[in-house]
Each structure stands twice: as C-alpha cells, then as structure tokens.
Amino acid sequence: MTTPEATRALADAHAHYQAGRLRDAFNACRGILAATPENAAALHLFGVILHESGYHAEASAYIERSLRIDPADAAAWSNLAVVFDKLGRVDEAIRARSQAAGRAPADPAIASNLAAALLESGQAAAAESAARRATTIEPSYAGGWFNLALALEAQARWPDALAAATRALTLAPDDIGAAGTAAQLAARSDDLPLARRILDDALRRRPRAAPLQLVLAWVATRQDDLPAAAAAFEAVLADDPDHGAALSQLIFIKKRMADWNGLPALQQRFRDGVQRGAQWLTPFSFLSDPSTPAEQRRCATVWSAGYVPTTSSTAVPPPPPPRAEGRLRIGYLSGDFYEHPTAVLATGVFERHDREAFEVFAYSTGPDDGSAMRARCVAAFEHFVDVRDAAPGQLAARIRQDGIDILVDLKGHTEGAPTAALGVRPAPVQAHWLGYPGTLGAPFVDYLIGDAVVTPAEHATDYSETLVRLPGCYQPNDRSRIAGETPPRAELGLPDRAVVLCGFNATWKLNAGVLDAWARILGDVPDAVLWLSARSERDPAIGNLRREAGERGIDPARLVFATHRPPPQYLALFRHADLFVDSWPYGAHTTASDALWMGTPVISWLGPGFAGRVASSALTAAGISELIAADVDGYVTLVTALARDTERRHALRGRVAESARASLLFDAARTTRALERAFVAMADQSRRGARVAIDA
Questions:
Q1: Each residue of 189-198: pLDDT tens digit?
Q2: Structural domains for the chain
Q3: Could you count the other beta carbons within 10 Å of the beta carbon of residue 57?
C-alpha cells in the first residue's frame, strides 16, 4: 500500500541512501512507514539500512515483512540472503537466493551468487547447475564462468574447471580471482609453465596483488623455484606485514634454502604473533623455530579454531559411542598412503591388526603414486577408501556412514591435512598419531598417541589432548626394509679415509645453532666430513650451508651432499656413515630409525618438546640410551669423542646393528598389540564418559 507522497518520500530516501547519508535515509524510511506501515519497498530499504548499520537481526525482520507483502521482489530476496549470511544462517541464505533466482530467471548475477553460496556449503553439483544457468543466461558474464570453475574444481574435474576459469579470465582479464584460480587449476593439471604464464601476465597488470603473489609462491614451490617463492611471500608481507600465512611460509622456505639472513627477525615476528593470537600462523613451521611447548600449543589452538563449525549447515548431531559388542571399527585418515615416511613406518602395523577384534578402514586423501608401497597399503586394510577428491563434508559423511568407532588422524597440522573433516567430529573418538610431533590444540581431537620419552606425564599440560603412551617408541617400524647396493665413496664425493658425520635430516631442520655445534666438532676432528642431504644438485641450500661453514672457519669442501634417491638406494648410503648427528629443536624422526636399522649410531640430545625427543625415544627403545646427551655441550663432547676413537666407534656400530634390529623399535607386532590395547581403553572411556591418560 502506497501513496503519491510515500512514493516521493521513498525516492528521497533512496537518494539519501545512494549518497551514503544513512541517517537521513533511515529517518525518511521511518517517516514513510509511520504513514504507510505496509509499504513493501520502504520496509525493504529500511532493512538494508539497518543491515549496513550493523543491526542484522532487525534487518532480517523488516526485509521478511516486505517479502510477505511483495514475495516477487528478487532484489529483496537477494538482500535477505546477504543478511542471513551475516547472521550465520547459511541454509536460509541459500533458500533466499533460490527464491531470488526463481523470481529473476534472466539475471545472471543472482544465479551466479546462488552458485557461490551452494559451493560454500559443500554442494558442488548444485553449484555447478546454478553457475551453468548463469553462463546460459549471459555467456559474457565472467562471474558465472568463475563460479563454474570453482564448482568443477570442487569435484576435481580439473580440465573442465581450467577451461571455465580461462573463459572467465578472458572476459575479465583484470579479475584477480579468475587469474589466481586459473593458475591454480593449471598447476593441478600439472601444467606448471601455463600457471606461471597466467600469473606473470596478471601480475604485470596488478603487481601488488597479494592473492596472486600467494598463488605464485605456491606454483614456484611446486616448480622447486624456492627463491621465486620467497620473493613472492616477501611481496605479500611488504603489502600486509601481519599476513600470517605468508610469514609462516616465508620462514619455512628460507629454512629449506638454509638462507638464515634476516630469519631471526622473521621468527620473532611469528613468535610475537602467536602471543597476540594472530590467525593463520602455521603450527608446523613453528616446531622448528625457537619456541616453547606452551607457545606451540597456543599457536595450534588458534589454528584449529578455524576448523570448528559455527553454522547450521555444518552442525551435525554427535555420533553414537563406540560399539560395545562386535569388532571395533578403526579408521586411519591420511594423505600419505604411498611412498611416504608415514607409510614406511606404519604399514607393518596396519597389516598386523587382529581382524577378529578390529575392522580396519583407511581413508586416503592423497595421491596414488603407483608404487609398491601404495599397493602394500591398499592390501593392508580390510577397507581402503580413496577419498582424494572428496570435499570435507563428503569425507566426514562417509566416515560417519561407515560407523567408525575410533578415527586416527595421521596428518596433524601438515600440508594437505583433512582437518576440516575432523572438525565436524564424524567419529565418537578421535585420536592423533605419528604424522605431527606436537599438540593439535583442537577440541575435536581427544587423544594424542606418544610414549614415555616424547610425551612424559610431566609434559601433559603442553597438550590439549589426553595422552596415550605406547611401550618403547610411539613410532612404529617393521623389519621389511631392504637396502640396495652401496656405491663406492668416491662416487658419492666422500674421501676414502674421512670420518663421515651424517646429518640426513631435511634442511629446514637445520639452523645456525646446529651448524655452530657441528663446526666445533669439525674443528676438533680435522679428518671428519659432514654429509648432508639436498633435494637436487641445484638446491640453493648447498651453497648457503657451505658459505655458513666457511664463515665459521670450516673448509666448505668438508660439507658433502647426497641428493634424493629411491628408498633402497637411500638406505644403502648409511653404510658409509660413521655417526648420525641429530639436529634441534626439530630432530630426526623416520631418519633416526633408518640410521639405526642400518647400524649407524645416532647421537642426539633430549630436547624440551616432542619434535626434539623422537630420536631419543628411538634410541631408548633400541636399548642404546647412552647415545642421548643431556644438552648441546654434551652432544658436542660425545660426537667428538666417538669421531676420534675408531675402535670404540666400530664396536658401537656392531652393537647398534645387532641391538636395534632385535629391539622393540622394529617389532611391529608388539607395537600393534599395544596400540590395540589403547583403542580398547579409548572406546571404554568414551562409553563411560571419562577420559584419563592411557599407558598401553
């Protein structure tokens, strides 16, 4: 109901609104509604003004009143959807956009917005349908093609998604989102040169565009062009010094390159950000930085909070408690069921589960590399579910549908982790094991599986999870490893008579303090060389580490590098290693077990946190705890003494070879039985509604 006066007043209200004079527009609408309370257009505009003024609940009430009077107003439905978005009422926002699309079938923007909303709620197929409707209505509407690309990407239909993104970019060459998406899709299609060309062209247009620089960093990292990746992250931080993801990744890239120039200042910025509770500071990167366990927990807690569902579309009822009768259903969740250290360590356990008591599932979110290890992983499980292309909601639904009693996450806060699926708690008991050496800080993870060395009782407050301690070492191993033929020393660049100090930890685990200690040892043992790992002969870490050694008075030629090679050939290298020298604060994990399996003595020291205690745990389980030093000075003294004493070193190597292989460290059957005892205890505690530490 309206009048000529109300129509004129509404025109004035719109003019005020368009000019940004919200108070004047508010007063004009209030006057109209006092005279004509059922004026749908005034109710609609009044609701929009309230929304933009921060009164979202009141705004929804006014717009809904307008739609009861004029349900054909597509713009009102669209604005109501925006208000519902702000209120976190996701399902209602989607319904409102569907109403808008039905009432404005010729508007491509409304159809495209519906596609975006459906996609955000995990409905990729429905989003594709809405986006295709937008491109049919108006083939030159770039937004429709962009959302179509995203919907196809969510379904892992890479070539079709790339074609749609390229079309969007052609229609809107200055669109940062379209360029970034097209580049990512090209990279996922393994066309990295095309991805770089797209990014280079887009960055010529918008050189300061941080989203494009982030994609460039990701693509450059995949190309192993670490200097370009670092430069891209630096460009993002120049524009936004508080960008947590860029800061985290720049620190990690610099550590991978052993480029320590300016690194302490970046690490301090990270540490300060953790204290402030800053978002998107990567917990994994922090483990190899100067930090305390309490700081690591704080960092992980803030990170995990981003995966706690807060909207109606992701809220699900709690799963039932673990079954009291029949086999317990155990689900292992990982992206590493292929030729990966996690699979090397744990497949012996998967193979040895008691099938009469446990029904064992694998949920694989990673690649099938066609390796023998992948085939072994598939055969190890009763149910191997390949969910690499599943959205988090689909993955969680599958786990819930399978009735998993205990879900064991093997990824933690590492790259490609399916944390979003864990966040909706698809299983009544959720535990973390093996993939990440620290707390996840997540309210949706109940237990962390460690041992008496890496997670002693006195460290319980460093973890948000309840601790489970396995006997021996938390890290499983089996006796199926096979070493290849060992090349002669000369072929590997090793002097014939040198004492070889092997430090095959990844370069990102090294730091100035570690190299200081190694330089002290090399200075006291002139016939020793330091044998390190590198990704390739072009790895920038090689030059950087040799330069750092020279600055410490050590001949750079005494640093020898072994490049990446297949597992049997890699294991064979340890036959030339006299001693394995560990790093800190993040030490050797799988590499320590590799060295012990091959009879190489491992020298470590007991660090303050999980990441620095794994080698000590392995040595304890192997019965060689005398190789664990108390601190850095003790470490230097022990390595130096052994490096100087050929007879003692040879005797020790023989004892390591005999003791380690026969020990609990490589007894996969005993580790499996202990793990199963822990699962039974977890299930029992869940049924009773209690949770206390478990010593299995």
A1: 889 999 999 9
A2: 328-470 (3.40.50.11380), 489-662 (3.40.50.2000)
A3: 11
